[in-house]
Amino acid sequence: MITRSRQVALALTALLAAGAACQAHDDAPAGAGRPAPSAGTAGGFTLVASGDVLPHSSIIERAHFDAGGVGYDFRPMLAGVRPVVSRADLALCHMETVYGENGDYSGYPAFKSPPEVAGALAATGYDGCSTASNHSLDDGTAGIHRTLDALDRAGVRHTGSARTEQEAYSVTLLPAGPAKVAHLAYTYGTNGYALPADRPWAVNLIDEARILTDARIARRAGADVVVVSLHWGTEWQDEPDRQQLTLARRLTAARTGDRPDIDLILGTHAHVPQAYEKVNGTWVIYGMGDQIAGEMHNHQGVRDPRGNQSTLGRFTFAPPSRPGGRWEVTKAEFVPQWFDVDAGRVVNLNEALARGADVAAVRDRIRDVVLSRGAAQGGLLMGK
What we know:
It contains 11 helices and 19 strands.
């Protein structure tokens, strides 16, 4: 429920947040070393998004090996998708876990990842990450602080969890070509960990009314495009569940005037790729899958290679034909990915196929799932 006090607090901070957000992004070394971004369409921009970054113990060990046994280097893991990510005008990831410190790192079930992950995300070209997940409270509020501090140092913006009440009620605005994009993020829960009584704002939980209120405040703060990341769905299920379908339909139907309140929905959590679908004229990715994860075992305890399959979503936005109109998606694409647990690398499957790798079956399975709800008829293409 959105209380009157929350509405007032959000309204009071929105305009300040807009200016602070853009200034913070402009000053930060996000996407360090990235090539010049795409120009998108004339006066438009391209947005790339990817799924869960979930460093299991084996991933942490691999990063230690890649760093030569001194520290942790996650950049080689992501190098295979850097060309796609870094060329976008705006690139968004999902940081599912929190960070530890001083060598106190762990994988499943309570994750504490090395903070060097943040620098690798920046080096790959990511500008921002959603941080609301069922693992956001794995190390209490201290884990949230360390995670957001590390992302700040790396110049990667974030949304979905917060260190202060003011931060929780601020709008995360990111520049994308000539546009301003608001990024909002929410999770279905926190694995039974209760939100601290004195910090109920520490992690954003999914609530339809709250999401729509936040989206409208973001619009008033100057957002041309509103993107919502949702950590939702049923693990290991290729098909979106009833909650996903219902919430997607209701969120995309909400409008203020003649413009939708939400322009794009990005789903995470299920571990497996799920469908893309155009709902009420708005693109929804029900689940992008795990971009980085160790060897995955499903609820039956069986190794399940789908847990290392995922997609990158890429959307080209064009400016409205008239002032105050909607920024329209003129091109929607998905890029199939796979995390090779043996090599410890994210693989762009179409690029790998072009080099002669035997990955057609994996690529085709991902494609079939992505298109299973008619996205091809909506104009979705498979990109490279």
